[in-house]
Write a structure and sequence with these properties.
3 domains, Beta-Lactamase, 9 helices, 5-stranded mixed sheet, 6-stranded antiparallel sheet, 13 strands, Heat Shock Protein 90, alpha+beta, single chain
């Protein structure tokens, strides 16, 4: 549960941090831009008010002020909020109270000019400034109103677009961080799982070696005693008793094979490397299966492939795979072989029930089995033998029914 939360927490923390930086930078930039716009409009308004105080205002003069500063509107207001002169039209009309800030106009008549972002037309935000135009006696006779629109405030729109771009980039960065954290979490989980499996395998190997050692000696005593009884009293025993002694020796042999498997799990199996033909090894394993499972058909398509290895151990690998398929209920097994780029490839497929999904990821672990009564040692030993030969043994998926195993071995002289 904690591992699955790591990517989400990392993404959220990354998103929160990047958004915080983005909004902070936007706020700082917006404050700086607003300060520049206000200073620019204030400078234009104060200069224009001084010029208008020296000469009678005209529409042409107001238009010159508007065009020189990239404004949307320039006009003079009387104390009764009537337009005395306008750069875009005739004067003598009442001002639009939805457009004019009456309180700030009154402040301007008191000698206090102001600049502020006021009203909006749709998405167009307007900055307005009110500046007193003094009469010859020094008192404000009218108020100069300046309005800056798109051309004047375009920098604010650019900042807003930059903000949304920054937010989008923050989201992408958070997704990227979450993806990296997810990859790291999965890699860490796989590493921990591999470490746990290695530790568990080492412990199982030690337990297997100890169990095999403790079982082998009693088995020798039991076998010797049973054989001695059969030798001394064989003629006097009834057929049923003879059968019982045979069954006891059979169980002794089964336990002996189990101890050998346990020892193979706990140690590196010895190998006797000799040149051999892989087709012969596969044929021997198939003939052995035919005698034990006559109802299972084995089809071989394996050409002559020269490898170097232990024929007994490699036959053990193939016999284990064929026997597992037959014991799982397969009625037909196909073994294909070929040589590709200096590597011998064997593919063993059957028509059985296949490998259970919950067993696939631990199929080659010691004592992992999906069959009732199975020991779960065969595949673990088989893989170790193939790896000792410099090859690989994997369970493949081809989308069809049954199980598929693939063996790769280096060819002789490759």
């Amino acid at each position: 549960m904690r591992r699955t939360l790591v990517p989400a927490v990392a993404a959220l923390l990354g998103l929160a941090g990047s958004l915080a930086v983005t909004f902070y930078l936007h706020r700082a930039a917006a404050t700086a831009v607003d300060g520049l716009l206000e200073a620019r409009l204030r400078s234009a308004g104060e200069t224009a008010a001084e010029l208008l105080a020296r000469s009678p205002p005209t529409s042409q003069g107001l238009r010159a002020v508007m065009e020189a500063n990239g404004l949307e509107g320039t006009y003079l207001l009387s104390p009764s909020l009537r337009i005395e002169a306008d750069a875009t039209g005739p004067g003598g009309r009442a001002a639009d109270l939805l457009r004019v800030d009456a309180a700030r106009v009154a402040q301007a008549f008191d000698g206090r000019p102001s600049v502020a972002f006021g009203f909006s037309f749709g998405k167009l935000e307007v900055v307005s400034g009110y500046f007193p135009v003094r009469s010859p006696d020094g008192r404000p006779g009218s108020v100069l109103a300046l309005e800056g629109g798109k051309a004047f405030t375009s920098a604010r729109g650019d900042l807003r677009r930059a903000l949304w771009i920054g937010v989008a980039l923050s989201l992408l960065a958070a997704l990227g961080l979450g993806f990296v954290a997810l990859r790291w979490s999965r890699s860490e989980a796989q590493r921990l799982e591999a470490a746990e499996r290695a530790a568990r395998g080492d412990l199982l190997a030690k337990l297997a070696a100890m169990a095999a050692h403790e079982i082998r000696n009693p088995l020798g005593v039991i076998r010797g005693a049973v054989e001695l009884v059969r030798a001394r009293s064989g003629a006097a025993l009834a057929a049923r008793d003879q059968q019982a002694l045979g069954d006891a020796l059979g169980e002794v042999d089964r336990l002996r094979r189990l101890t050998e498997d346990l020892l193979d799990v706990s140690r590196e199996p010895s190998l006797q490397r000799v040149p051999l033909d892989l087709a012969d090894v596969v044929g021997d394993a198939a003939r052995a299966l035919a005698s034990s499972f006559p109802g299972t058909e084995v089809r071989l398509q394996v050409p002559s492939i020269a490898v170097e290895g232990d024929p007994v151990r490699l036959r053990q690998v193939l016999a284990n795979l064929l026997q597992n398929a037959a014991q799982a209920g397969a009625r037909s097994i196909e073994v294909r072989g070929e040589t590709l780029r200096g590597t011998a490839h064997l593919r063993i497929g059957d028509d059985g029930p296949g490998i259970p999904a919950d067993l696939r990821h631990r199929l080659f672990d010691a004592f992992a089995t999906g069959r009732a009564g199975g020991r779960g040692l065969g595949l673990a030993i088989a893989r170790r033998i193939v790896v000792r030969h410099g090859g690989t043994l994997e369970a493949a998926e081809d989308g069809g029914p049954g199980a598929v195993f693939e063996i790769q071995l280096p060819v002789q002289g490759a």
